[in-house]
UniProtKB/TrEMBL annotation:
InterPro entries: Rossmann-like_a/b/a_fold, UspA. It comes from the Archaea. Signal peptide: none annotated. This is Universal stress family protein. Residues 2-129 form the UspA domain.
Length: 148
């Protein structure tokens, strides 16, 4: 069974990755991550602690830091990223996550979303757009139980 985690390095995404690894380990499955990086969007990058306030945009460094972050939680996980235009909408990001999940032929897409609530129609997350795939969805809403 293959798990794919929507990963942006935030604590909730780290919890989602940790949960996916725990599940995959239990059934001898594998884990991949997909990260969407809006090019030259310093505000987006700073909001996810990819760069500090005074740091310039460095695409290679951001990607390598994200790769290292994934590796620190899940050394065996595949790391995949996609660059998008600077002001990509949440729908565009969701579409890329959904398409990546389909390309990787996943069984379960794991998403960290503190505000997913009880229904996937929350307009403030990408959850709605990724819920249309042919895979199961596991939504992680709590960072408290990270095991690694």
């Amino acid at each position: 069974m293959r798990f794919v985690v929507a990963y942006d390095g935030t604590p909730i995404a780290e919890a989602a990755l940790d949960r996916a690894v725990t599940l995959a380990d239990a059934i001898e499955g594998d884990v991949a991550t997909v990260t969407v990086v809006p090019r030259h969007n310093k505000e987006y990058a700073r909001g996810r602690d990819w760069i500090a306030e005074e740091e310039p945009w460095d695409e290679d460094e951001i990607v390598e830091n994200l790769r290292a972050s994934v590796s620190s939680i899940a050394p065996e996980a595949m790391f995949r990223y996609r660059m998008v235009e600077r002001f990509a909408t949440r729908g565009k990001i969701g579409h890329i996550l959904r398409r990546s999940a389909q390309e990787l032929d996943v069984d379960v897409l794991v998403i960290g979303s503190e505000n997913a609530g009880r229904v996937f129609s929350a307009l403030t997350t990408v959850t709605r757009s990724v819920s249309q795939g042919s895979y199961d969805i596991y939504v992680v809403r709590d960072t408290a139980s990270i095991s690694r």
